[in-house]
Amino acid sequence: MATDAGTAIPRFPPGFLWGVSTSAHQIEGAAEKREPSVWDVFTAAPGRVKDGSTAAVACDHYHRYREDVALLAGLGVDAYRFSVSWPRVNSPGGLDFYDRLVDELCAAGVRPVPTLFHWDLPADRDWLDRDTAARFADHVTVVADRLGDRVGTWITLNEPAEHTLLGHALGTHAPGRRLLFDALPVAHHQLLAHGLAVRALRAAGADGIGIANSHGPTWPASRDQADLEAAGFYDVLLNRLFADPVVLGAYPEGMGDLMPGDVESDLKVITEPVDWYGVNYYAPTRVGAPQGTAGEFGGVPLPAELPFSVREIEGRPVTDFGWPVVPEGLTELLTGFRDRYGDRLPPVVITENGCSYDGVDDQDRIAYLDAHVRALHRAIEAGVDVRGYFVWSLMDNFEWAEGYARRFGLVHVDFETLERTPKASYHWFRDLLRTQRPA
Ligand code: GBH
């Protein structure tokens, strides 16, 4: 795979931001010190998470954040993307934790990049309610007022597409609803929440605002009309439905009619200008017309009644999760974005990229990351304005419906002892960052 291995990774532009990502529910633990989230309710029911686990303790980052910030400092990253748990902020003293974390990061010379929603909605809220968008903006104001003196870079939402699809359309993530296309209001209300959050952050004096959307190229299964149409529809649902409203202030054709409320006036909020656009990239998806089975989305079986089917991408290595390794998909995605959105596309930051593999001597993860960093550089050479790259994830953590079985970390976590052990990929990334810095 890594055909360039051995030659040095090219130099990225000056000021390029190198970082790693995590999210609150996946690492913090200390569940007793926060209000419940939809994920606590979801994982309490049997059969929802593969290994039957919950995130009650997870990596116990809540108590071990100093050790984790030391790992970040040892890695030499410019920035750390974490998320602020809304249910924790709702609990007495909850915001104090993020206050301490931000202080620790600043003292270590690591830029804090908080995400204000990464799927752990307070258990008494619901994205089917329009009001949740306004309540989210209130939460954002509370956090910005407290952390804004030290935080200059903000992310409103993480992957509203996945939260809609997995949480509300297919039911394999919290809150576990299986609404299929009736889940679309969840997408609209999150996008509205994003726009209101941008306004709340500006009102609190913030700049450096972005969103982290999940994207990947859609590859038609063939040139047949039926496959092209099915792939086009999939691309609308997973990519354009979340990028077009933010970047262009419009839904893809036909989709606005399916959304609730005064969509035209909401779009003016949703397209409130951002300073940069975050892309989480894992793999492309090959899509064709419906057939007997609809295939899988990230390991989740899709219902056969969908108007498309996901096909296997053959001839590629796959990660432990079964996702194909396609680094050039990242170049293709970014040049495609530039071609589609032109001057309206804000500078791009890769807010997540990574893979699940077991083991501490994780040469396969090094090969994946090496190839994707090179693919990213090719997009920059092709003229795409990319300003940063964040690896998912700093450490192994609670991988949602997969529990602790999938390991994405640069740092290994023993979930019995909670001991952290840097993997080979941690040392590889540290060395890459050293060579990227001016001497
Ligand atoms: C992200 O989700 C989340 O933000 C993060 O919390 C999570 O831990 C991380 O990624 C790892 O899962 O089946 O080959 O077509 C990304 C989830 C990634 C799921 C791409 C679907 C399709 C791959 N998506 N995946 S494939």
Please report which band the strand proportion falls in: under 5%, 5-15%, 15-25%, 25-35%, 35-45% or over 45%: 5-15%
What is the residue-mean pLDDT, rounded to a whole number? 97
Rg over alpha carbons? 20 Å
> N-to-C SSE series?
EHHHEHHEHEHHEEHHEEEEEHEHEEEH
Reading side by side through the largest sheet, how are the strands ordered?
Answer: 1-2-3-4-5-7-12-13
Low-confidence stretches: none
Figure out the total of helices.
Answer: 13
State the secondary-structure class.
alpha/beta
Bound molecules: ligand GBH
What is the molecular shape?
globular
> How helix-rich are the residues, as a percent range?
25-40%
Distance between the termini: 31 Å
Number of DSSP E strands: 15
Oligomeric state: single chain
Specify the biggest β-sheet: 8 strands, parallel, barrel
Structure description:
With 439 residues, this protein is of the alpha/beta class. The protein is 39% helix and 15% strand. The strands form 4 sheets. The protein has an 8-stranded parallel β-barrel with strand order 1-2-3-4-5-7-12-13, surrounded by 6 helices. It is globular. The chain binds ligand GBH.
